[in-house]
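Progress report, Aim 2. The chain analyzed during this reporting quarter is listed below.
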Amino acid sequence: MTNQVLESVDVDVPVRTAYNQWTRFESFPEFMSAVERIDQLSDTRTHWVTKIAGVEREFDAEITEQNTDERIAWKTVDGPNQAGVVTFHRIDDRHSRVTLQLDFDPEGFAEKAGSALGIVEGQIKSDLKKFKEYIENGDGSAVGGWRGEVDAPPQSGI
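Predicted structure tokens for the chain:
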């Protein structure tokens, strides 16, 4: 059964700065406590190493859509079944809202129990709060963000 988490945080930086920082995947361990390392393999592929409750996992994720200063969507290509999107919303010239939606299939008893108890939601909320602190306490520029575009795959069927 797929679970969904939806959380937002308002940050005291412009959308461009929040977006640039989010595209610097290698910095995620600075504000995401379960992330040990992320390697950028290409413009659209990342390799993740996570450690949650002593369990280490490695998997690759593919960016499926990326619109500069608006959204980044991804899905795992191996390992745990996850997909998500982060969107960036302008509040005014100096403030923005970052919204994260994550869909995931918990594996095993511990993950299913943790999901049922709201641990994943709590972790994401905590990580977004840490992102806010991280980006607001930085130099405000988030230098090095990737500003390329990735078109969403065409819809099939209908």
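The first strand starts at residue 3 and ends at 11. The radius of gyration is 15 Å. These observations will guide the mutagenesis work planned for the next reporting period.
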